[in-house]
Amino acid sequence: MKRSSPLIIQLIFLVVLFSLLITFLNMMGISNPFYNPFSRPMATPKPVVPAPAELGADERSTIEVFKRLSPSVVFIINTAMRRDFFSMRAQEMPQGSGSGFIWDQDGHIVTNFHVIYQADSISVTLHDRTVWDATVIGADPDHDIAVLSIGAPQNIMQPVILGSSNDLEVGQKVLAIGNPFGLDTTLTTGVISALGRTIESISGRTIYDVIQTDAAINPGNSGGPLLDSFGRIIGVNTAIVSPSGSSAGIGFSVPIDTVNRIVPQLISRGRTAKPYLGVVLLPASHSKRLKELGYKDLDGAVIWKIFAHSPAQKVGLQQIRQNNRGGVQYDVITAIDDKPVTDDDQLIHLLESYSPNDKVNLRVKRNGSEFDVEVQLSIRSE
């Protein structure tokens, strides 16, 4: 048997080695090891069509509003003192955050009352990233509005532009600027979904004429402005309806007409000057019981008690009382200046549209008959 030539063995070895190398290169995604990548034709980026500057008029308007109004929006952190379980030392712990906006150049910031509720200290971060300690100078829990004061210089305070909420239309475009989840100066857009909504405030009172919007409002947006397409503030974002706690397309804002009535009073005196009639209204449970006993004509606001020397007493209104036959007599307020009063809450809402010392005409039902009486409201002492 002849032995193979060493040269043939070497050739076979080289062929096998080369085959293994080609297989390895293919596995590595290199199909042609002899291909020169610099021999390929040069590729160029695809042109942008249309040019970036050619945005739609609506987009340019939104961008302009955001640039102009975002310096007016602030980030608010609410901290409270807590004791460490082990060391028993008191230390400040963040318990919430929200948004707010600059009301004027005197350092007044408007936000929701629930954003600063139970705070031991409050800090406000402005658009230029400076942080300022804030003090609460006034609050109205019934409308979820609070006013803070900071010591920032006037030249960095850019107030919002006020609009009006009494001529809004469903379908009108709106913008919300705030700090959802601590992400500062975030813009969302949408439309007004409905008007005249009611929500419950932190005090349990009903807030009327609330604006509903589908602009995304998330935790942290509370207290921030709702703007129209011109950049005027038309509401203060205050609540959402969502099982998960995040935006579900249903957000609510306190109308700016209400805010504009309340804020100057909070700045001037720390609380609102609410008109005073001087009555306590019959609780719903008592009214229901009277209806079960067969009493009628309870539709309206039933006067349960009247305070001495009050406007109601001065014009002869009477509280609920027992007659000679053992029955019950009562006065029921059914209208104010021809505006119907359907229940206790409606009466309170209508009274809030007046100021102390205003004269109002009440329609009262007593013993099956109706009469009108003019009352001059006074101021309620808190």
Overview of this structure, please?
- The chain has 382 residues and is of the alpha+beta class.
- The chain contains 7 helices and 23 strands.
- A 6-stranded antiparallel beta barrel has the order 1-2-3-6-5-4.
- Strand 9 and strand 10 (206-213) form a beta hairpin.
- The longest helix is centred in the first third of the chain and has 22 residues, at 6-27.
- It is elongated.
Strand content: 35-45%
Beta strands, count: 23
Distance between the termini: 122 Å
How is the largest sheet built, in terms of strand order?
1-2-3-6-5-4
Q: What is the CATH architecture term of the largest domain?
A: Beta Barrel
The CATH superfamily title of the largest domain:
Trypsin-like serine proteases
Over all CA atoms, what is the radius of gyration? 34 Å
Shape: elongated
Overall mean pLDDT score? 84
Which structural class do the helices and strands define? Answer: alpha+beta
